[in-house]
Amino acid sequence: MDNYALFAKSISLNELGIENAKIQYQLTPNELHNITIQSGQGVENSSGALAINTGEFTGRSPQDRFIVKDSITEDKVWWGKVNIPFEPAAFDALYKKVTAYLSNKEVFVRDSYVCADPNYRLNVRVVTETAWANLFCYNMFLRPEKEELSSFTPEWTVICAPGFHADPLVDGTRQSNFAILDFTKKIALIGGTGYTGEMKKGIFSALNFVLPVFKNTLPMHCSANVGEDGDTAIFFGLSGTGKTTLSADPERKLIGDDEHGWTNENTVFNFEGGCYAKVINLTEENEPDIFRAIKKGAILENVVFKAGTNEVDFQDVSITQNTRVSYPINHIDNIQPGSIGQNPKNIFFLTADAYGILPPISKLTPGQAAYHFISGYTAKVAGTEAGVTEPQPNFSACFGAPFMPLHPTKYAEMLSKKMKDANVKVWLINTGWTGGPYGTGSRMKLKFTRAMITAALNGELDNVEYVDHKSFGIAIPQSCPNVPSEILNPRNTWEDQNLYDTKAVELAHKFKANFAKFEEFANAEIMAGAPIA
Fold first, then answer.
1. Has 244 been annotated as catalytic?
2. Which of 207, 304, 373, 448 has the most beta carbons within 10 angstroms of its beta carbon?
3. Alpha helices (runs of H) in 141-183, residue ranges in sequence order
4. Average pLDDT over residues 15-26
């Protein structure tokens, strides 16, 4: 890709309120890589990838995510702890401060778009304070052709200024960092944090409102891939459940690893142009596609090098457990051309159950599928956060509550209809613990999880015997190719099966307690999918 200096002459940020800025427009990945190193903000690792540190914030800050409450959002957004309202006047005042801060500075501007399906394409202009944040957006958003840029008109704008810190007493924020969406002005405003995921998830949150409200399309926090026969598989799951790992299947073509739309035409399209994967404990043996994608053009975040080298120690979590890599999707060899799939046939809900209760694979009825989708369950293990000394349930509605502006039942009803119309099979996959909870049992082996998913995709579980789980009512296959039968029923893997029964009932009650806030909005079919304990 050539330098876009000629185009930069016609780019102005004055209409955004950013004046007299030195605009670095549409720089190449190599240019952004080199600027970052020359400025001392990053180093090159042994594979050629750029390694940077995001500063104080090594993850998103959900309590500092706001949505401007105005005529577009007031009656549609599900306001509360997830979607925190922000006054329009306060946004305008804070926006002026941020743009004044960026004025007279060097800024990096990138024109890009999201939504691989041309019928749903949304143009995005990104203005970043750092070169590496701009490289992240090159990787994660879709890249227009050079000839498109002369007539490019942005619909949304992302402004990211990690060096700007808000004054909570004056600006209406909780603390100095913030990420605010304004659906009237179509702006994602980010300040006080260098964590790149805020930009990616800001646009994802915007699409989670725009697509269902205006396009009748279901947005999904999921990965997706396509088989040789053209069948699409969808993988929902929270961070750490295997969403990226399990969709990177050498036998199937990757559509994308995190964010997709499911259209009325029964197609599934990627929102993004890249992948953003966790790299904690990464090995080439277990995750070859991700491991090999870490090369020139990729960005490693908050990793630690082995002493005296520039080789990453993927086991070192001294900065954060949320070590990450972003890379353009073409760093993966086996990808679906155009990032669009047809004919969805299987959906997998992934959970890392640290209690060791849920089966490694089970089949869900439509009602159970909607119930588990709204629940969005996984579990935190001891030591992942301060004060977490034993497994704790983590429910995130629709497997992505922090990014969902509408009420979760809106997404669940859309999903249920699409599942029925397309005759989709839905599976619950526990990638977490077996033989007991965290600390007693062991993590389910990746090779067994892959074998179970492969069997489901190939129809090899269609005619096997199933037994319903005593507490959850979900159907457990009694055999599966290339998987030991004794691990399919988790009760059989516990030394004390009576203790298993007790803990299973306890977990079922945690599900019901969490779902209580959704009951008044849920229909009879969804409520019939609840645990039976």
1. yes
2. 373
3. 168-171
4. 97
